[in-house]
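=== Discrete structure encoding ===
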Amino acid sequence: MTWTIAPCTRCKDKAIKTASKPGPDTHSTDDLAAEYSGYPTYRISQLSAALNAQATRVLKAEFGLSVVKWRILALLHQAKPVSSAALCKGLSMDAGLFSRTLKALNEEKLVKIANSKTDKRQLLISLTMAGERKYQQAAPVMKKRRENLTNGLSVRERSELMRMLDILDRNAAKPI
């Protein structure tokens, strides 16, 4: 039994994943992965999914944090206090997800939310002492995780990787 991608029998235009033997009109997921593995967008997406799954396991099990909560704590550790708008933009995060996560962090007393003294419409976010402790606990593990990702790469190769990622970032921002 193999998982295959086949047209949906109801709508005919959407693919669904089904357990069956591949037929002449279907492809196994392994075939599709092999076909797409040469596309940088596919490889980056797969790597991102694997890294997020790894981070989720570690952060949840060891520190009771989600990846989104960790990213907020890590950015706040670097820039304190920061406006909620700048924080959301810096994380390239959906505003709804950001708002819900920030509310949860506030309820957990890991962040402090205050009105700006100069602009009452603006919220300033900072880590509480508990938030800083949580960051300090998780930071060494997350640093080790980042280092493990580039094991086997020379310093020059790491620099080249970052240069190439910068190019991809710029190209992704350009219109098609």
User: Anything to note?
Assistant: Residues 66-139 form a domain with the Arc Repressor Mutant, subunit A fold (CATH 1.10.10.10).
